[in-house]
Structures are given as structure tokens and as C-alpha cells.
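Before going further, it is useful to explain how the protein records used in this thesis are read. An example of such a record is reproduced below.

***
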Amino acid sequence: IGSLIARNFATKYGDRLQSLILLGSIYKRSEQQQKIVNERFEQAKKELKLSRQALKRWFSNKYLENNPDTYEKISSILSGNNMAHFLKVYELFVKHKNEEDFEKIKTKTLIMTGEYDIGSTIKMSQKLNNIITNSELKIIKDGKHLCGIECADDVNLAIKNFVGKNE
């Protein structure tokens, strides 16, 4: 949801930004993608928890196997969420309609997603790159949704290079 907040801020207060980075942002889900997200939301409302399957979508199996501490730590964070608050935020994410006025984003923008992110796909990022002026696209090789953790070196280097050339 961070990228949705950043996009919204940039359309209203872009003059306050030197650069903008959108990591794992959604854009115009297909009907099938929307159906899947709706089903996950309904499941979370029924069970009052986020499925542990989320981590399988967010990290590669290899990463989870090699980093069981990360798996347990993030699982613990998820299970400790105040579900009433979480569900309110999750509902905003699920029902997001992409109504931002993207023409208002004039800030130099880096759009990134993981190569294997099934929720914030390469296609979504390519579309965002096409509609946001002064944007560039970076696909994080072998990354999934939480590539900022799994592929931290690649993500951090991309951010460092982008910010460095736009200072």
C-alpha cells in the first residue's frame, strides 16, 4: 500500500518531491487478478488473519528455505497485526481503482517490481512506466513481492543509483 500512498501524494504535492520510487505497485488488475485479491480479502475477514500463503507469494521458496528466521519473523509480525485495523487498510488496497491523475506526476520516478511478483506484475509496472512522465522501469531479477528484503542488494543499489543521478 506504500506505493499507492506515494502515488497519491505525488499527484497532489509533487512540488515537494525531488524523486519518487514505486516498489511493487499495482495498476489496473485484470478481472482474474481482482477476483483473486477479493477472495483473499474475504478469507482474511473470515479467519481474522492473513494466510501464511502470503509469504509464499512474497518470497521465493529458495529464499524461505534458506532464511527460516525471516519467515518466522514476518509470520510473527503478521499474526500480531490488529486485524480490525489491518482489514480497513487491506480493503483500501483491494478496492483501489487507479483514479490518480498520473499526468500530475512530474517528479522523476523509478518504478520497480520483482521479476516473479504475481500481485504487482511486470506488466503493471510497464503500464505505470508508460503513463508516468519522467519514469524509468527496473525489474528486480529473481525477486517476488518483498524483493526489498529478498534481493536487498539489487533493490538498494537501484535506489542509490536513481537517487544519486537525480539529486
